[in-house]
Amino acid sequence: MADIIAARNLFKQFNEIKAVDDLSFSVPEGNIYGFLGQNGAGKSTTIRILLTLISPTSGEIEIFGMDLKKHRKEILKRTGAIIERPDLYKYLSALENLRIFAILSGISITQKQLMDHLEKVGLSDRANSKVKTYSQGMKQRLGIAIALIHDPQLILLDEPMNGLDPQGIADIRNLILHLSREMKKTIVVSSHLLSEMELIADSMLIIDKGKKIVEGKMTELFAPSETIVELQTNSSGEAYEKIQKADLRKYVLSKKDDTILFRIHRKNVPMLVKDLVQMDIEIISLSPKHSLENYFLSLTTENQHVEAFKD
Amino acid sequence: MWKLLKIELFKIFKRPRTYIAFGAIAAIVFLFQIALWFDGKTYIELILSNIDTSFDFSEQFKGRLLNGYFVCFAVLNILLIQMPLLVALIAGDAIAGEANMGTLRLSLTKPIGRTQYMLGKFFASSIYTVLLLLFLAVLALFGSMLLFGTNDLVIFRSTSIHQMSQDDIFWRYLAAFGYAAAALTTVASLAFLLSVFADNSIGPIIATMSIVIVFTILSEMNIPLYDRTIKPYLFTTHMVAWKGFFYVRSDEEGATIKGSIENLPAILKSLSVLLIYIFLFVSSAIWIFRRKDILS
What we know:
heterodimer, A: Rossmann fold, four-stranded antiparallel β-sheet, 30% strand, B: elongated
């Protein structure tokens, strides 16, 4: 499957702060691509770079096989977005907001088509109400109608579930799945709601402090049949060297401080324990990490703070 | 471009705050007209008392002074100093207001160029400025003509008196309103430039007014050093040149030369300075905005 987005060696520096640090990733066509990271990890900056709201300090981006700098307008014609909150003209009605952004998207649209779009997001009966009278969920739905008004191939959603109640979150989740599965859209969703991402994402990218930690298909990174096992040892350096010389090295996911992470099929966990003992590695603990949240925390630096608090 | 302009005008005229300026102008003009309607004679006496006492104004002359053209000139003298604030209310909000609402980032994810976007906003602010002046013209000129009738216009300066026959006045008002449009567009373009730097509109509006006030004070100061070094370069010095359309030349017998302007080159020079300022402010705003990271 072709890549819709290919970003290479992206850097963005705000004064002394590196918001994005040598980030490369690719988004396959038709995927729901989860973009995960702590607050301040660089997710929003990266999405804004993809939307040309922020210029990268350096790096290259191709979207739909075209250079983003040179073909900005062509790319944006085929892209829809919601960035953080669905901020709209509060003194205008939903219909007026939708019409304005339809024109800005470069399409001609009739009143009936506008109403049909509002109908799809369940706002047709409030089409002429001013947006300032809308609830957060209604604004989010109108934001989605605006993002989809020009039938884009690529949809970028930056924290689309922020501030929504459980029903609103479920609605957005179902809509994302519908857009991907039924309408074959490619969707990039940034979020820190890991449980939600676990339910919808096909692929994911985890970033921390602007750097890529891991990227890949969910089935590969986080297969239900596989598990992440965290080994804590007194001498991780020595243990790591021993493991690298053995067959076990193919299961190693990462090493950080006193911790070594393995990704291994569940049925092979007893074999892992046996081999580690046979290699004379001093095991303090060996614990399985089941959820995406554990996986995520095990890969990001924030985990170090969490572990410190546990101590 | 036309579509962008229509969107911007639609947004401007859908906002209640837009009509504050129209309301303020209407209130001031009506209050002034009512005052002169009931007590115009005292106002005329007050003006004449400041004139060289060697002139002996007849009662008939005094009676002809208070007419629609004269009232309009007096209104413009008062209002054209206050109008920059009303213009800054909209122009200062152009980019900063969108940033504050969060709609700037949404708009810029659409396939429109940033230069186009800025030009659409600037032209919309300029059209608003012109409409504000048209509104003022209708109320102050046509309203006063209806209320007070028409007659010759007499303008008093500290060293001279200029008299124009009533068939030689209307075109001067058209020219003066046209010039005032350029002067106020200069203020609008300054507010527009400052708007690029802010994420809420209060800052650019206050900054614009502060600059206009400081520059106006400097323009009015009678200090020889400033006359040569600073004043010629301040846009506020040139904003009042509209009055030049009402200063006429006279022949050897002292009679007004019909259709004459005392110093047309000076007016054109001032107009050029204002146009240069508009160009500099707007092109700087676009240049900065094209490179700006949208973080709001």
